[in-house]
Every structure is written in structure tokens, then in C-alpha cells.
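hiii so um. not sure if this is the right channel but i have a protein structure encoded as C-alpha cells and i wanna go backwards to a sequence. like what aa goes where. can anyone help
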């Protein structure tokens, strides 16, 4: 009796891998024609709707305490100006706070401490690009003496990437038809499709000189331009 049970268990265990292999094999397309593998890219153009700018204050004082205190006072004015402009708290992020000693160097003499330089900067997201320039001018008026950027990007790019995916699929199908005609065949079916990757454009920086703080600048303008977003697909077809 015990020998019969062991034999049944052994037969059952042997059948499991065979069943698993059969199921896995069922997922592999069986070709009766020619397999064609291609890459297809879809691209769309969008206007950036988000500007990221670094704004801050730098102060120089004889003492570390004096530098930090004045810096904090002026930075508070900058933050208040951002709030008055309607910038939400979630769109204001501290990026750096620094305090460094300043020295005067004379040849053949030890360096002499002359004071301390404090700096504080925040990264700000501007969602209304038309108002960005006016807000920057207001920040300068409130004491901001360090401005870098803007970096222009697209806030929610997924819908644009979906449009690029649709274009990539259409391009892949058209290319498969082209190969089939050139080979005297026809496209029978799509075997597989996978996304090889999407191109995320880096933020578009402005020239540094265009954002330099200047009391003589009458008005700061931000031109968003356009950005290209791409998606590349790997597609396989059967030709007969």
C-alpha cells in the first residue's frame, strides 16, 4: 500500500513540470512565416507650462550672527513677496542655506578674516508663465540678489506621452507594411509590442546673462518656446 502511494506521488510530481512547460509554450507565438522586429518612435511637441527658478539672498557682514540675521530678514521679505503673488507653499522649497567666512589674502602674510557671507535660496515653481517675469522683478525689489533659471518643463506630461505612444504604434504598423510590400509579403499579425523608453526632455535653461539681476532692467520676460517628447516602441510582426 505504501509503495503504491509513493509511486502516485512521484507520478504527480513528474506531471507538474510538464504541465508548466506546456502552459509556458502556449504563450510563445508559433510562426509559420517570417518574423519582423522593428523600433518605432512617436514624437509630440508641447509648450512648457512650468518654470522652476532659484531665488535667494546673499549678505556680507563683519560677524556670523549679523550675516545670518540680516539674511533671514531679507529672505522673509522675499518669501512674503512670493506669497503675495499667489505662489503656493508646496511650490516653494528651500534649496540651500550657507554661511562662510571671508578672508583677505596678502602675499607672504596669513589670511585676515574680514567677515561672513550668508546665503539662502529657494526653488520656486511658477505655473503662470505670463506672470513669472513680473514676479521676479518684485522679488528683486524686495531684496533678492541671486536669481538663477528659469528651467522650463511640462508639469503633467503623461497625456503628451500617450499621444506619442499612439504615433509610435501607427509608425510601427506603417513600417511593417512597407517591409512586407518590399518583400512581396503581407502583415499577418502583431506578435509583441514593448516600450523601449521615453525621452524626458531636460528642463530648458535660459542663458545665464538673461537672468542677471540688474537695476536697469525695465522688465523681465519669459518665453516658453516648445519641447519635444518622444516614446520608442519595440514591435514584432509576422509576415507571410
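sure thing!! here u go:
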Amino acid at each position: 500500500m505504501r509503495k503504491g502511494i509513493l509511486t502516485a506521488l512521484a507520478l504527480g510530481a513528474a506531471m507538474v513540470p510538464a504541465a508548466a512547460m506546456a502552459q509556458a509554450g502556449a504563450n510563445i507565438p508559433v510562426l509559420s512565416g517570417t518574423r519582423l522586429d522593428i523600433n518605432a518612435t512617436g514624437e509630440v511637441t508641447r509648450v512648457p507650462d512650468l518654470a522652476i527658478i532659484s531665488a535667494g539672498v546673499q549678505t556680507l557682514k563683519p560677524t556670523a550672527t549679523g550675516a545670518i540675521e540680516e539674511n533671514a530678514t531679507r529672505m522673509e521679505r522675499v518669501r512674503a513677496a512670493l506669497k503675495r503673488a499667489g505662489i503656493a507653499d508646496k511650490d516653494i522649497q528651500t534649496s540651500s542655506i550657507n554661511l562662510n567666512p571671508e578672508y583677505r589674502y596678502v602675499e607672504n602674510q596669513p589670511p585676515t578674516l574680514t567677515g561672513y557671507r550668508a546665503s539662502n535660496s529657494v526653488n520656486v515653481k511658477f505655473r503662470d508663465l505670463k506672470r513669472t517675469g513680473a514676479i521676479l522683478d518684485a522679488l528683486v525689489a524686495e531684496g533678492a540678489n541671486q536669481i538663477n533659471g528659469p528651467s522650463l518643463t511640462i508639469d503633467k506630461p503623461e497625456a503628451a506621452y500617450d499621444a506619442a505612444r499612439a504615433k509610435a504604434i501607427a509608425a510601427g504598423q506603417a513600417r511593417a507594411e512597407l517591409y512586407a510590400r518590399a518583400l512581396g509579403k503581407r502583415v499577418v499579425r502583431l506578435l509583441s509590442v514593448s516600450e523601449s523608453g521615453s525621452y524626458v526632455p531636460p528642463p530648458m535653461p535660459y542663458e545665464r546673462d538673461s537672468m542677471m539681476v540688474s537695476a536697469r532692467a525695465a522688465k523681465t520676460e519669459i518665453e516658453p518656446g516648445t519641447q519635444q517628447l518622444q516614446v520608442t516602441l519595440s514591435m514584432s510582426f509576422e509576415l507571410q
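oh and The chain has two domains: 30-49+154-214+225-240, 51-153.
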